[in-house]
Amino acid sequence: MKSVNEYIDQNRDYYINWLKEICEIPSVAAQNRGMTDSVDYLKGLFEEAFQQTPEVLKTSGYPVVFSHLKGTGENTLSFYNHYDVQPEDPIELWNTPPFEPTIIDGQMYARGIADNKGNLIARLAAVHAIKNVIGELPIDIKFIFEGEEEIGSVSLPEFADEYKDKIRADGCVWEFGYRDGDHRLQLSLGVKGMLYVELFSKGANTDLHSAQASIVESPVWRLVWALNHLKDENEKILIPGFYDDIDPLTKEDEEMIKHYRLSENFLLEHLNVTNFVNNLEDEELKIKHIFEPTCNICGIQSGYTGEGSKTVLPSEAFAKLDFRLVSGQDPDKILLDLRKHLDDNGFSDIGIRSLTKEKAARTSPTERITKAAINTIKSSTNEMPNVVPSTPGTGPMFELCQKHGIPAVSFGVGHFASNNHAPNENIFIEDFIEGIKMMASFIFEFKNEMEQQGAGIRDEVKSQK
């Protein structure tokens, strides 16, 4: 790795320029902005870096950019990333233009730099460095870059089912990765699932003078009353059967949660809050954070919310909700249970639009890819990673990986205050450069772990004979 790391240091400005260029593209999937430009940029980048034109695979939505680089070994490692980003709103809260990458005091600010373009470029750069120093890759590498992650990866399940041969791999490095407040790297072994819905209520066929509220029912109150039936003050979700299918914690889970570090005081101070929900702390807080589902109101909208007063009775109201789901829960079943729960409580008039459905995904800590990641991080940072049994966030990991028997792990170049989905999104430049080196090292470590597994299987077969 010494010569590879030296090459990365010598070409750091080259890789930083790649990062700037891709972050200049406003690839906002929700608004269909810059999506074609992003695909074109990635095609050009692959041609520049690997003298190979990647495949642009059509889906019912935005295309998937796919590349298979051949190596000398028997195994295959895939990298899943996404080229789409969140909208930059509220733009007035940005200190620098969101699509003009700006470096201030060692941090680069740009929309999408942490989620997920920093990791995307770091992984490309790691493979580029290995290939240029050694001349060949130690294993096969696959890149899978989708364009719909920020809108629920709507087309990814159909892509994964149609292109099973293309996504086949011995392991996958998932898109995200962060450092804790003490700069220790996190290693995540899974994601929560999700059911994202919009509840809506309709009243009169037009907004009315609020004096009519004496005789015309308010759709806003109907929605508020309906929402009040979903969760109680102690955070218990009130939908019958909601918790029935959750997989119980294993001894392995209990052991991992003991070692998982959640810097409670640091997080409270950083967020400027005095306590966590239900005043939880220590083991109970970590279990709730990692292994329990949620029901969250993402936003409510209706009527007049501008300056001053406007006496109006709105004609409609809606709320967006996400349910973060854990292993065992099926988003399709939760959706049916939600509909029945509202109906049974007299809210059959409340409409439901289903926007996103994803299952939770987990990777065992005993998998070879997990061991390779831990070994790499220990060697690179001289300390154990903070192993997260399953991140509280969500992604289409199940559809692309576990559904097809592919274990996946996540670690990368972001940090605890990268401001994903928020103004002033950022990463540290040095974390980006170190992330390139670490991912290059991981490729060799993964090869070694897979070869050891193969040797163990061969020895077992011989002993049986």
What does this 3D model show about the protein?
With 465 residues, the chain is an alpha/beta fold. The protein has 14 helices and 19 strands. It has helices at residues 2-10, 12-23, 35-50, 113-134, 156-162, 164-167, 219-227, 251-259, 264-271, 282-291, 331-344, 368-381, 397-400, 429-464; strands at 55-57, 64-69, 76-82, 102-104, 107-109, 140-146, 171-173, 186-188, 190-202, 208-209, 296-301, 312-313, 316-325, 351-358, 361-362, 386-388, 391-394, 408-409, 426-428. A hairpin with a 2-residue loop joins strand 4 and strand 5 (107-109). Helix 4 packs across helix 14 (429-464) and helix 12 (368-381) packs across helix 14. The longest helix is centred in the last third of the chain and has 36 residues, at 429-464. It is globular, with a radius of gyration of 24 Å.
DSSP strand count = 19
With strands numbered from the N-terminus, the spatial order across the biggest sheet is 1-2-6-3-7-18
What gyration radius follows from the Cα positions, in whole Å? 24 Å
CATH homologous superfamily placement of the largest domain: Zn peptidases
Number of domains: 2
Q: Please give the largest β-sheet.
A: 6 strands, mixed
Q: Which stretches are poorly predicted, pLDDT < 50 over at least 5 residues?
A: none
Name the overall outline.
Answer: globular
Structural class by sheet pairing and helices = alpha/beta
Separation, N- and C-terminal Cα atoms: 39 Å
CATH topology tier name of the largest domain: Aminopeptidase
* Percent range for β-strand residues: 15-25%
